[in-house]
Amino acid sequence: MDRSPLAPASFPDLPPIAGVRIAVARAGYKTWDRADLTFAAFDEGTAVAGVTTKSRCPSPEVEWCRAALPLGQARALVVNAGNSNAFTGNRGRAAVEAITARVAGAVRCKPSDIFVASTGVIGVPLPIDKAEAGIDAVLQAPEASWEEAAATIMTTDTFAKGARASAMIGGTRVELVGIIKGSGMIAPDMATMLGFIFTDAAIAPGLLQAMLDSANRQSFSCITVDGDTSTSDTVLAFATGKAGNPRLESIDDAGADALQAALTELCLDLAQQVVRDGEGASKFIAITVEGAESDASAQRIGMSIANSPLVKTAIAGEDANWGRVVMAVGKAGEPAERDRLSIRFGGTQVASGGLAVEGYDEAPVAAHLKGKEIEIGVDLGLGDGRATVWTCDLTHGYISINADYRS
Amino acid sequence: MDRSPLAPASFPDLPPIAGVRIAVARAGYKTWDRADLTFAAFDEGTAVAGVTTKSRCPSPEVEWCRAALPLGQARALVVNAGNSNAFTGNRGRAAVEAITARVAGAVRCKPSDIFVASTGVIGVPLPIDKAEAGIDAVLQAPEASWEEAAATIMTTDTFAKGARASAMIGGTRVELVGIIKGSGMIAPDMATMLGFIFTDAAIAPGLLQAMLDSANRQSFSCITVDGDTSTSDTVLAFATGKAGNPRLESIDDAGADALQAALTELCLDLAQQVVRDGEGASKFIAITVEGAESDASAQRIGMSIANSPLVKTAIAGEDANWGRVVMAVGKAGEPAERDRLSIRFGGTQVASGGLAVEGYDEAPVAAHLKGKEIEIGVDLGLGDGRATVWTCDLTHGYISINADYRS
What we know:
The structure is a homodimer.
Chain A: E1 20-25, E2 37-42, E3 47-52, H1 60-68, E4 76-83, H2 89-107, E5 114-121, H3 128-140, H4 146-152, E6 161-169, E7 172-181, E8 194-199, H5 205-217, E9 234-239, H6 256-276, E10 284-292, H7 295-306, H8 309-316, H9 322-331, E11 342-345, E12 348-352, E13 355-356, H10 362-370, E14 373-379, E15 385-392, H11 396-404
Parallel strand pairs in A: 4-5, 8-9, 10-14
Antiparallel strand pairs in A: 1-2, 2-4, 3-9, 6-7, 7-8, 10-15, 11-12, 11-14, 12-13
Helix pairs in contact in A: 2-3, 5-6, 7-9
């Protein structure tokens, strides 16, 4: 698979995170000639928070994480790529238990301190023998780079995705690093994909969870590739506390705002990279909805536009078909008044007050649509509600990838 | 555009409906070398009922019909193809008023007895001069056939769509004929597309409306091509009363059940023809959901499957990827329990009790998926709720049509 035309030029330079050790190994879940098992070990005292898919049919990995998250402590993370282990009944649950028991034995901690996520085909139980051999190998493996880890969690992704941020807390600089995978089955309003965030900040688990929830609402919940929601999607944040900052207990503590801002920025960077690797994507689309009755209403309208196959194919065709944007606003089921609605592409107003802007200049619109970074603006003229969501276009590439991907 | 591979062999043989006269003309809304204006005149005493889009940004035609429908009487119908007149502000409203006034003057009735629908590009005001010239021409035109009318209302459709049904009411046979257009921007849970039904049955307008609502719930509301909802979608039913049956006033009257059954059958036939002409469709997909907590829940789960790009591309690729069906069940937001869920393709159970059926015979599944008529069955194992919905696959053809269609 060719690298997405929307990919960044190179993987970013990411700092080490004190208290985190990364390694990769080849469990051989698929015939891929590459590592497919990622391992992270955390020093004692590492706090954890997470958001998981809203699917009613989640994988046993998701159920495991949901049960362990309230305890707030993590010592290790295992990520399997190539097999999601979802919809595999007791055998899937047994695989998760075998993985967590084996790692807990090696690390000498409780199984509930071990977090696990898997991604790939649904319906094939994760082979326990391969997982166990992979874990034994990864425990002996040399330390890996962030780029190796980001590449090892990939499935249909065309580029490894990572990002960094930092914040000052009480005079101490803390670092945040994130890696993420995902390019299809990416959907709105929930924790999408597999994403892992590591920081050396000292923070209470409950506050880390609140910060991750907030960051998620402004990042992973605002992207969509195809409106489809995985059974396995998980974002986990690990905070080792090794930076030595005064431990944050409350959002009112000095420096908490800075960490929240850094975490949100990091999540947004990661989320946008997923969209930039959307299956078949040739254009990155930012949709800003203003003037809605509420922020939530603006987001639902934005997602209705972002998930419309007709809008997405029009952008693929570089066609300023704002009528399809009107259609998508109309079908969202949210308050809207046709005769107050205005729409712009790039910086050019194309429709206003319920009809086309007479004689608007088509040249800048056409030039904007030929680019790779597309902006659609909608103003409902009703209130102060505002949201931005991100998606990609819908091309022949999406069909080719998904009509051929072997189940 | 090639005729859909799912099209019926030929247009059906449809009977005349007493009290209805059809004609077509060329208004020249587009450069098409074909008729684009369809006209139907009804004898005095014709009852009318209708269902219209749930879009919050409807066309002025839809608003006109919504205002006129409660009066229950119709003398004429005008359908414009090539320009939807949606999102055109005062000029769009003026075009509808000009059309209805001109026809009312010719027919000598109230403007509110005239119904109008338009389909095509959004955002370009319908040119009033062309509409008026078209009306003048159609009023002089010879009577047209049902097939000519069905072809004249088409836009991106690849075949003309019509159907018939009949019922016995108090010893009198009544006939029903329907024509319909639509192949993209077809979405669930509302009156979709432009559909027109004509019957010689004598029936009170209120009862006709109740029957159309019921038929709509089991037909047009159960289909989807792309989950997108037009600003213009309208289904109208006209009943001339010329069959001479005892006029139906209540659903409890003798023969009302038979007419309801015939109307529902007709609507289902028309709705399925729209799916068979879904943009780029190569396979017709029937999705039956059973064992849900309610019929409504079953329908929402069915639509979640039917609107999933990943399910639709898997079917296009003839891939028995039932994991994507699990995904779509999970994302529907309806009650579901992974470990009670079972799935079949054609007659073959592929997953049951939350995991793959061990060693199921793949040969009949592969053979079924190579066909043009695909059946997906889902049993949730929770209750008695049941629904069937219909869609088509998602192919390169959809992308080609919609990335190129000129706005």
